[in-house]
Amino acid sequence: MIRTTLIKSFFTITLLFCLSLPGLAQNEKAEADIQEIMKRLDVVGLSVAVVKKGNIIYTHSFGTKDNTTNAPLTNENIFRIASISKSFSATSIMQLIEAGKLSIDDDISDLVGFKVRNPRFPEKVITLKMLLSHTSSINDSQGYFTLDAINPAKNPDWKKCFSDYAPGTDYRYCNLNYNMIGTVIEKYSGERFDNYVKNHILNPLGLYGGYNVDSLDANRFATLHEYNSTTKKLSPSPLAYAPRREEIKNYVMGYSTPIFSPTGGMKISATDLAKYMSMHMNFGKYKGKRIMSKKSARLMQTKISEEEGYGMAIANREDLIPGKMMTGHTGSAYGLYSAMFFNPKEKFGIVVITNGCNPTYTKGINDVLRAGINSLYDNFIK
Q1: What are the residue ranges of helices labelled H in 99-244?
Q2: Hey, which of 44, 95, 264, 331 would disulfide with 356, CB 3.0 to 4.6 Å?
Q3: What residue stretch is flagged as signal peptide (predicted)?
């Protein structure tokens, strides 16, 4: 009897082991691919996550958190993800629209509290939708770290913030658009921008992250490394996680918002970003928690600029994975490069974040991101 039980147990264990082999081989192949990409493109560290049918099926971190200490990068580390942050701002706006506090066609002048008009087209209203879709005709030539750049009462060169085409007629990517969006969120929610995102997006979805450096565990920050093309070396950036305590101490609600960088300041791990991505992939819902309507989520993903494939903080690209339309966003700042892309029809998505690399590009996207996305797709989805 004991022998029979042992034989059965042996066969059960053997069967389970054999069934696990394809997954193990899959992981090993993907990890070998990524190690080769990292070596070829001088990558400091890389965090990745793959989502399929609403579940994270793979997440892993490679390389180092900081090349001066050689501390390993882990899945717990968080990154300043740069422009993917814009989607958190747009999601917040959708929530406020659903609450009846705003309309997507509102005049941005009324929303921010000072005149925002292209001087070449003074009668043309610049709407909230135009800011969200980068069709406002506003540019970053005067900077975007303060609203003073575009405020006629603060900057004598405010007119330079506007391009020479009519609002709503063309696309031009602009960070100032989204720092103004952050201001609107404060004015119409009554909450400071960083707190609003935490209370209405991060906490409901069970995610760790945020815009306020001092609200986060500094030990979890992945150091960002900038590449010097002359020396061909990667060095830690001192600016990526600047706490800006003095500016926050003197904060003016509804105007100081760019301090938190609604356009690029979110800090989050690849794993938690993949959960957030799943919410967008499932049109506003993740693990039974809905934070915005299907209508709003679809609107964010709908092309407004046909040429660029851009909706509202969400882009549509056909040049990432052959034969697949991928929806999402990239980010780059202080040496970081990030990508969050998903296919809402087939229900899969991929997050790739590097904290430093040799920044070569192919067809408008960093080669590390492109190669990482394709490797993960080939090994886990295809």
Answers
A1: 108-112, 128-132, 175-189, 193-197, 203-205
A2: 44
A3: 1-25
Which pTM was predicted? 0.93
The predicted-structure confidence for 259-277, as pLDDT tens digits, reads as follows 999 999 999 999 999 999 9
Q: Are 131 and 108 in contact (CB under 8 A)?
A: yes
The reply to whether 250 and 365 lie within a common domain is: yes
Q: Is 219 exposed, middle or buried (0-12, 13-18, 19+ CB in 10 A)?
A: exposed
Task: Specify the number of domains making up the chain.
Answer: 2
**Two structure tokens written together for 288:** 């039974």
Contact 329, 90 (CB under 8 A): no
Of 273, 266, 89, 303, whose CA–CA distance to 177 is shortest?
Answer: 89
Last residue of a domain, one of 138, 156, 186: 186
Same domain, 133 and 225: no
Residue count of the chain: 382
| CA 367 – CA 290 distance, rounded (Å) | 34
Residue 363 per-residue DSSP state:
T
Domain with 350, as residue range(s), is 29-84+191-381
Query: Which two tokens mark 283?
Result: 């049109």
